[in-house]
Design brief:
mainly alpha
């Protein structure tokens, strides 16, 4: 159990485990990995916001990565986000 600087208490039993320990546990107990780990940069980005793709170097490259994972996300976003609409107009 841990308490952060705002007084929020949280319990994270594997917080201090190494990547190797987590992967060994998953293998030992035959736990199926979520599909996101097969996505481009899935292990680095994980379940963070789809728009947070700074590692791609540009907004358009970030949209391309998300489009390759699930085109419907960018298509829906294009109704509200100009850069997503621009990506669809230029790339598709």
């Amino acid at each position: 159990m841990n308490v952060n600087k705002h007084g929020v208490v949280y319990y994270s039993p594997i917080y201090n485990w190494s990547h190797e320990e987590v992967m060994a546990y998953i293998e030992h107990f035959n736990i199926k990995l979520p599909p996101l780990y097969k996505w481009a940069n899935g292990f680095q980005v994980g379940t963070g916001p789809w728009a947070a793709r700074e590692h791609t170097g540009s907004i358009q490259k970030g949209r391309e990565e998300v489009y390759n994972i699930n085109p419907s996300i960018v298509k829906r976003a294009a109704k509200y986000i100009a850069s997503a609409a621009e990506f669809l107009g230029n790339s598709r």
